[in-house]
């Protein structure tokens, strides 16, 4: 367990630094392209050649990424680089101008309404701002996706909601509380419970530990790892939190220069000679974590760690 979580998780590198780094980024691109390909059945999300622009501003260009079954993928990159944009694009909330994104083998952007529904039932999302409905209790919040996608009796829904609340480590009496009555950590857990409402195969988490105190953040990471191990859950986690990357993530993808610069286990990040990746994973904060708790997350057996 991490004992020295960074108290102010601010790893927002500016884009000027990144552009300089990108100019020297050939080695990183080579490392990314040499990452071992996962078998099709192990890939839940496959993005290839994705382009996203807002007006004339290109945010993502020729971006490719795999998310594998049963892994916690940490998605990292400078503030404003497009991490949330990619997440929203995967979820079909942003249009893309090129490329393909398959989720569970289905191209969601091209899918029929029926196919879209079937995909939506298999994923859960915790957005960056927590996004609980403030006028609803925790239980009512968790019931929202159940009402939208399932046809359950009120009794069964209540029972399932109770299970989800227990699953994320909230006390039973949290069910009838409103978001304003909860601590930051409890709000994240309630948001996670709602993301798990439909028993998804994958959850998308956007900066889930930002704003939490170090112990709350470490507890949240532990919860995510437990859910991966017990439910076989796959997790796509956008994060700035180095502790999460070192402790919880099986693989990491770095966004920069509008694409994924490098994708692989922590060992691959530590070996990368891309300047931005180096400064991120070998910076002072990273060194503190490695020194204080030298047990980073183990690569997935299928990674053939670089
Ligand atoms: N709907 C939108 N319209 C125009 N620009 C947007 C929109 N959403 C995001 N952007 C821009 O895209 C860039 C990437 O944003 P974002 O994905 O939120 O960054 P981050 O990597 O910090 O999550 C930013 O410059 C942001 O202003
Ligand atoms: Mg963001």
From TrEMBL:
Gene3D superfamilies noted in UniProt: P-loop containing nucleotide triphosphate hydrolases
InterPro entries: AAA+_ATPase, ABC_transporter-like_ATP-bd, ABC_transporter-like_CS, P-loop_NTPase
Gene Ontology molecular function, alphabetical: ATP binding; ATP hydrolysis activity
Coiled-coil zones: none
Domain annotation ABC transporter: ranges: 45-282
Signal peptide segment: none
Keywords carried by this UniProt record: ATP-binding, Nucleotide-binding, Transport
PANTHER family: PROTEIN TRIGALACTOSYLDIACYLGLYCEROL 3, CHLOROPLASTIC (PTHR43023)
Protein family per UniProt: Belongs to the ABC transporter superfamily.
Protein name per UniProt: ATP-binding cassette domain-containing protein
Organism: Jiella pacifica
């Amino acid at each position: 367990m991490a004992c020295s979580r960074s108290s102010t998780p601010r790893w927002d590198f500016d884009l000027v630094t990144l552009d300089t780094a990108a100019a020297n980024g050939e080695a990183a691109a080579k490392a990314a392209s040499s990452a071992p390909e996962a078998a099709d059945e192990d890939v839940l999300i496959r993005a290839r050649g994705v382009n996203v622009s807002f007006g004339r501003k290109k945010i993502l260009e020729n971006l490719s990424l795999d998310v594998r079954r049963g892994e916690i993928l940490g998605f990292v990159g400078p503030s404003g680089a497009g991490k949330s944009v990619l997440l929203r694009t995967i979820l079909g909330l942003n249009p893309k101008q090129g490329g393909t994104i398959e989720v569970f083998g289905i191209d969601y952007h091209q899918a029929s309404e029926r196919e879209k529904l079937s995909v939506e039932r298999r994923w859960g999302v915790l957005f960056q701002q927590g996004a609980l409905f403030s006028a609803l209790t925790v239980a009512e919040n968790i019931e929202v996706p159940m009402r939208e996608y399932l046809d359950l009796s009120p009794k069964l829904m209540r029972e399932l909601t109770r299970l989800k609340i227990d699953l994320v480590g909230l006390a039973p009496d949290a069910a009838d509380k409103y978001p304003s009555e909860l601590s930051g950590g409890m709000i994240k857990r309630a948001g996670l419970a709602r993301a798990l409402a439909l028993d998804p195969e994958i959850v998308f988490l956007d900066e889930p530990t930002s704003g939490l105190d170090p112990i709350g953040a470490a507890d949240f990471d532990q919860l995510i790892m437990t859910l991966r191990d017990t439910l076989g859950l796959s997790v796509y986690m956008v994060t700035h939190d180095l502790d999460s990357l070192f402790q919880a993530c099986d693989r990491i993808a770095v966004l920069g220069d509008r694409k994924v610069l490098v994708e692989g286990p922590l060992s691959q990040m530590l070996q990368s000679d891309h300047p931005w990746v180096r400064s991120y994973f070998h910076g002072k904060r990273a060194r503190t974590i490695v020194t204080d708790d030298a047990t980073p997350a183990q690569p997935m057996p299928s990674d053939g760690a670089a």
